[in-house]
Amino acid sequence: MDEKYSSNVLSGGKLGMVEVPNSRLTRYIVLLVVSKVLKALGIFESYDILKVVHIVQFIFILKLGSAVILLFFQKPFSSGKVISKRQWIKLVKHAVFSCVISLLGFFGLTLCGPLRTLLLFEHSDVVVIALLGVLFTSSGGGPSKAAAFFIIAVICLLLFDNDDLMAKMAEHPRSLISSTPAISFLGVADHKGGVVLLVASLCLKVGFHTASRKLSVEIGGAKRLYALDNLVSAMVLLPWVIVLSATTESKVESWSSLILPFGMIIFSVMILEFYVEAICNAKMETPRCARYGTIALFLSALLLANFWTHPLTDQLRSMSKPPQQVSTEHVLSGGVLVSAIFFIMSSSILSSPSKKGQKGTLVGYSPEGTPLYNFMGDALQHTSQSLPRFIKDSLKQILEEYDSRQIFYFLCLNLAFTFVELFYGVWTNSLGLISDGFHMLFDCSALVLGLFAALMTRWKATRIFSYGYGRVEILSGFINGLFLMVIAFFVFVESVTRLLDPPNINTDMLTPVSVGGLLVNLVGICAFSHAHSHGGKSCSSHDHGHSHHGHSHSEHGHGGHGHSHGGHGHGGHGHGGHGHSHGSAGGGMNANMRGVFLHVLADTLGSVGVIISTILIRQFGWLIADPICSLFIATLIFLSVIPLLKDACEVLLLRTPPEHEKDLNSALEKIEKIEGVLSYRDPHFWRHSANMIAGTIHLQIMSDVVEQRIIQQVTAILKDAGVNNLSVQVEKEAYFQHMSGLSTGFHEVLAMTQQMESMKYLKDGTCIM
Amino acid sequence: MKTHRSIFGKLLQEFRLVASDRRSWRILLFGSLNLLCTGCLLMWCSSTNSMALTAYTYLTIFDLFSLITCLISSWVTMKKPSQVYSFGFERLEVLAVFASTVLVQLGALFILKESVERFMEQPEVHTGRLLVGTFVALFFNLLTLLSVRNKPFAYVSEAASSSWLQEHVADLSRSLCGIIPGLSSVLLPRMNPFVLINMAGALSLCITYMLIEINNYNAVDTASAVAIALMTFGTMYPMSVYSGKVLLQTTPSHIIGQLDKLLREVSTLDGVLEVRNEHFWTVGFGSLAGSAHVRIRRDANEQLVLAHVTNRLLPLVSTLTVQIFKDDWTRPLLTGTLSSSSSPSAPPLGSAEGYATVSSSSLPPLLLSSGGELDPLTSTPSKPSSPPPEFSFDTPGRNVQPMVLPAPGHHTHRPYGGLGLTYGASPYTGMLNQGLARPSGGLGLGMQGLGAGKHFTLSHI
Fold first, then answer.
1. Which residues does chain B have within 8 Å of residue A742's beta carbon, measured at their own beta carbons?
2. Which terms in the Gene Ontology molecular function aspect does this entry carry (chain A) (predicted)?
3. Which terminus of chain A, N or C, has less C-beta within 10 A?
4. Domain A658-757 in CATH: superfamily?
5. What secondary structure does DSSP assign to A139-167, as a single string?
6. pLDDT tens, B294-333?
């Protein structure tokens, strides 16, 4: 075997990319299969070794051993370019990452056993990248079947593979590697934690491999990089190993008996597989290589898992072990079998060479009728700028304008409060706090929406958004209104159920939670009412007074969602004034800001309501106060949202703006009186966005009037009435004659049909003129 | 109080109007059934304490919304445009679709939030009514979906881009159809998204039931609630994007190619210099409205160009306004061929005095000569460097056409105030319906198919 392998290295290095006929590939496929089988064997072996050797020591030995061998073969120092200091730093980083990934991988191995590790962790990069592509780019049509299989397989491992024997194992004092708090925190069994860990580290591994490609070019080849990487990671691990061996006593009886298995593992897992993979990738296409490799690996893993614990193999194995552990862990179960089959299927589909090629966009049809596609569009569009730059740009945009700046600051404040609450909740292990934190996050989504809309409003008009993006603001206001309606509805339902059956509420937690909360929302109200009066001209004093009335109450309670939006007479009062101000101000409104403001207001009402009900419950023990309060709040929110929704609906339905209705009517009268104008028809006027009122009108004028003058006059009149995006179609009698002429010319055939009647009508009309 | 009563009175009146149609009885029947079912399900939700069932119940509530949308759409067809709602009420349909999809997505968001809270502390789920509830909801949803013809939602689900869920199922269903070809009418090119999500939700609930029964994994309930909520998002998002774009008055992207072609045609018409400020958008589902400003040569006949432009665009755009405009029209024409158009009886400046009072602000450019200062209304700035059009355009002899046309001068003195107006709307719309299929036959027909099937053709490339 050794000889074969080394000779292949040489020939592999010499032969370039040559088109090899299929029959000549057989030897490489066989080689690949053999190396995979050996790898599976090595993984099983290393699982056994890991029971006695600490994982860090284990990895150290692996890395060191392979580094020594690779140094001998590869001679990274004597051949190739000199490595600069900068590259050394990169190498160290690379090595640290590879250490972390192998730590995770082998830790997963100790948790799940070799078979499951092989199934989960040993997917080729091609497969995983294809899988992620299918899952996360909804470019559609990809082999989603394969993705479904993969997910089913993982779920099978997670749920249906009841590793009951594992539970028994857990009673044994495990080796040095006890399950870490991170995984036991999730409250799942060990091997399930392992499954999750392995999937995560699989993604990490693939990302790492992709990222390290550039470095391998810099260093001078993947093999040289691999050799150096092993060396450096052994160095990196060295201090840890020294500390470990100094502090803990080893369970190994004799290191000498471990030399053989270690050698075998180093050879099969670290070196042989690497070289064979490199050769095969050079000889065959990568997906094919991945397909054969994976199938061989999984099948051999299944076989090994079946026979590993068999007494026959026991004798063959080089290690002697305490017998009671051998037969009890990580045996084959139905779930594993099914998931292995699914894994094999999915990876064979995913790694099958895609005949589809790139995805293109349909451009049109050729004269022969075959579809034409454009392949480059996507690739060009997706060259996005770097993330920090993008963040910087959008931040700058946000801070440019008053509205978005206000929302942004408040969002930051709110998020900061939420995270403080969440962290404190995790720290003190208080479920109430955590759930309240999530509730706040839920509320923040409305703010995010508002922020995004405020940002979008300023985008330039495009071909599709020909009027510009101003209307987004109104739509966002509408969505926020609906959001509040949903919230009000849920609060209502919750409070009704609580009214029927008032639960016991623990009021102790409420006060400390809410100290900061109300303050945050008050700041918000203050800021937004300013922004608001800014837009809405009037009533600033009222709002101001209201916010200065200040309270020392609190924010959401955690007793339930029912009362997390609570209310209060005073708040309601303030709001009434506010709504009124809008009714009058109307013109300068900004639906988006209104929606955000109402949201913050609802939150504040909620916190005030919580305070009131807390006081009532504490003082008088009226448990029913809480649902009644929530009921009251729900109604208040509901009532306060209605005007916003109504206004937004009117704008979205293209109603003639009510505040301009009178002006427009008088303008229309004026237009009729212009000299030369006979009449008008189809007057459409609608509010497009906060500062744009669009309109179209058709005018009939006498034949001897200059059209352009009429257009100017009408435009001026309507501009005075507030319409600032106007199209006037001026029609003379000649127009109708032309039209009827054109139409009859066009509609010769149609003239026979029922259309005839209307045509005649049209002609009549012309005749009368 | 009085205003409230009047609102209710109005609502009642409109409701009677809708109910007078026999077709809407069926919708009302299903609506009441749905209410009953939803009530039952909500009770079962609280008794089973299952989040997944709650998420599934929201789909039933969504069905209720879709029934309401259906009622609205039948109401819309009965209503004529009023003075304030000058475009008619077709958009109400769009708004209803948008609101119901957004509401159900917000419901899903709520489910997500609750699920996150449940992951911390998983309460026990009672499976007693879980399966019953699932099948009752599935049965009612499918019954409603299949027996009520819901025009707006059918349109949106056809026209919107296919959802994430649909795309993933499309692959499976294609291979399934390879085995059983008979299914292809149902499954291809893509499944009805509502049926799909109902099925998928029911499936995940069944799995939940099994797992809870067999292994007592209560957390599966939360997980499947999250899954249903995500699927709801996936299904509803494309539809709300589509209807939201209609509400935002955007040019529908599948029309753009056709529209460009027409505009190119228009700009090659004789006398047309450029088309700008073109705004095209959909009023309801389907009918296009639009306006454009067309700049023409100084010596061109405005009415003729207008007629030609309108004639080109009208088959596609039913509510069309074209503003024709000329640069410095106040200057007398150099050529002096004024035979065709309205020879001004009074000199322009003289009559300008009459309206100078009306529009004092926006009329200084009367005597401005360069082409840079154009219409004060146009938002797109024109090139300031463009020379006066009559010199820049070397017009060959083929533009004799406008001059030749007879000027019906003897008609001008007839008043056509009252009667002339009536032939505005109705003949146009009549012509539109006929015309749509014809002049752009291939494109017009191909459009629908393209919109629906484009994802599938693309995925096979």
1. 307-308, 311
2. antiporter activity; metal ion binding; zinc ion transmembrane transporter activity
3. N
4. Cation efflux protein, cytoplasmic domain (3.30.70.1350)
5. T--S-HHHHHHHHHHHHIIIII---HHHH
6. 999 888 888 888 888 888 888 888 888 999 888 877 776 5
